């Protein structure tokens, strides 16, 4: 199982796509980090202004450790921005900060897909932590039910990533629209923001494809186990 060639045949394209997506988001972010905003505003200021003008209150903007570790925490209602985004006065910083503020807008407005995604956080975390362990244990002790339990747990991860896509795309659409409507970027700068956000979105697409291919592998690999036990 560990050295199964079928695994690399099925999962290989997903891994390659993930590597390409990671390279693209890093190179695009770095490129537009060198392009300053005409307003001279930092990412933190842009996120704060977006929320203020949208009437969203009670959301904090905090600096967070790690490169591109930016995220919105709906539980604590905090937009956490990495150092380069929080302090950055570039197109890249504006795009990422506005994207995370877009998640805060989704939360405040009760965006349905985001609500569904939040309900899947616990099952997805369990699936991510336990699925491989349960499948491997089931394989070695020859318990078909345990194997399929592990596959079902991994299915929760795939479902979470599937729901994540519309949430991320919607946040990016909100970010681009708000940046222009509020006069925080020019039309020309918005095109650069779009490239940054499109590159970031590809990482979510790649993650979903890789997970789907992994699920396909599990199903193909263990489809005959139950029949052989009968």
Order of helices and strands: HHEEEHHHHHHH
Strand sequence of the main sheet, in spatial order? Answer: 1-3-2
* Strand element count: 3
User: Given the structure, what is the number of helices?
Assistant: 9
The parts where pLDDT drops under 50 for at least 5 residues are: none
User: Helicity level, as a percent range?
Assistant: over 70%
Overall geometric form? elongated
User: How many domains would you count in the coordinates?
Assistant: 1
The biggest beta sheet, please?
3 strands, mixed
End-to-end C-alpha gap: 21 Å
Given helix and strand content, the structural type is mainly alpha
Please, what is the average pLDDT?
94
The rounded Rg comes to: 20 Å
Protein model, in words:
By secondary structure, this protein is mainly α. It has one domain (5-229). The chain has 9 helices and 3 strands. It has helices at 5-33, 43-53, 83-87, 91-108, 112-119, 121-140, 144-181, 187-222, 225-229, and strands spanning 60-64, 71-73, 78-82. The protein has a 3-stranded mixed sheet with strand order 1-3-2. Strand 2 (71-73) and strand 3 (78-82) form a beta hairpin. Helix 2 (43-53) packs parallel to helix 4 and helix 6 runs antiparallel to helix 7. The protein is elongated. It starts with a helix and ends with a helix. The model has no long low-confidence stretch (mean pLDDT 94).
């Amino acid at each position: 199982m560990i050295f199964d060639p079928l695994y690399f045949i099925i999962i290989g394209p997903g891994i390659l796509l993930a590597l390409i997506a990671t390279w693209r988001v890093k190179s695009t972010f770095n490129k537009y980090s060198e392009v300053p905003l005409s307003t001279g505003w930092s990412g933190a200021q842009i996120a704060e202004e977006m929320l203020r003008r949208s009437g969203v209150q009670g959301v904090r903007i905090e600096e967070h450790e790690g490169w591109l570790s930016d995220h919105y925490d709906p539980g604590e209602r905090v937009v956490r921005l990495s150092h380069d985004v929080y302090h950055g006065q570039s197109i890249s910083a504006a795009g990422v900060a506005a994207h995370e503020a877009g998640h805060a807008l989704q939360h405040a407005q009760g965006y349905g897909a985001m609500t569904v995604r939040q309900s899947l956080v616990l099952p997805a975390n369990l699936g991510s932590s336990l699925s491989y362990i349960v499948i491997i244990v089931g394989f070695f002790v020859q318990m078909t039910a345990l194997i399929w339990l592990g596959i079902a747990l991994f299915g929760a991860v795939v479902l979470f990533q599937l729901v994540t896509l519309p949430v991320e795309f919607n946040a990016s659409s909100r970010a681009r629209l708000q940046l222009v409507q509020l006069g925080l970027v020019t039309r020309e700068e918005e095109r650069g923001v779009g490239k940054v956000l499109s590159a970031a979105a590809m990482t979510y697409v790649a993650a979903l494809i890789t997970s789907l291919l992994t699920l396909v592998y599990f199903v193909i690999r263990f489809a005959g186990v139950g029949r052989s036990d009968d």
